[in-house]
Amino acid sequence: MKRTICLLTSCAMLFTLAACGDGNSSDPSAETNSGSSETIQDRSQSSPDGNADPAASGSSRPLIVYFTVDENTEPDAISSASVVTIDGEEKGRVRAVADMIAAETDGDLFSLTTTTTYPADGRAVIEQAAEEQDENARPELTAQIENLNDYDTVFVGFPTWWYDMPMALYSFFDEYDLSGKTVIPFNTHNGSRFSGTIDTIRELEPGANVVTDGFTVSENNVADAAPEVTEWLRGLGY
pLDDT digits over 6-16, tens only? Predict the structure, then answer.
């Protein structure tokens, strides 16, 4: 994967992105399970500095936007294999990676929730995702980011479905102009890694600095991904 981001501190190190489970499987990854609406979760009482270097010694908190079906299903949905258990807590895989990023960057979390609900069954989720892609659907978002201008850096996380982002991500990029911000993708996959999604994000947000050195991890390895997330973030200057 090409690296286009300039490292902003002299001590930052380049490294090879580790992402286990890579392959050419045609089965896209899915997130499932019981859902809940969520707004930005502050991890610090201090206000983020909108003019600070986002990767310079934690001088500015990033925003971590993520989509996981686990938070977009019926409340009484039954847990499935797509939910990972970390420290005794069940959560969607993308949320798990988002938490790892937040722990290292002191970032604020924002869950993309939609009026569309998704089934808990993984196969059914993929079928619904295929239908949404065919329809070029834009699931309606149920919560808005009120203080986007406070953030210079926005991490964006999602599962890869049928070699693309969930259509909820298209809703997000349609609604928000991230011009002038650094956008850093991360995702979970079932063999297809990012596919062409980073290029898609660059097309949807032409005014943003979209980092091509995103973090991608096999859905089967999320529970043990924290060391890789830490190493990746250090390479970005965090």
Answer: 333 333 333 33
* Rg of the chain, C-alpha, whole Å: 17
Beta bridge partners of 86: 89
Burial class (CB within 10 angstroms; exposed 0-12, middle 13-18, buried 19+) of 231 = middle
Cα 235 from Cα 192, distance rounded (Å): 23
Please tell me the distance from the alpha carbon of residue 89 to that of residue 195, in angstroms, as a whole number.
Answer: 30
CA 27 to chain CA centroid, nearest Å: 19
Which residue, among 63, 26, 47, 37, has the nearest Cα to 163 in the 3D structure? Answer: 26
d(CA 230, CA 227): 5
pLDDT digits (tens, 9 = 90+) for 108-143: 999 999 999 998 888 889 899 999 999 999 999 999
Look up the pTM and report it: 0.76
CB of 47 within 8 A of CB of 84?
no
The DSSP secondary-structure symbol of 156 reads E
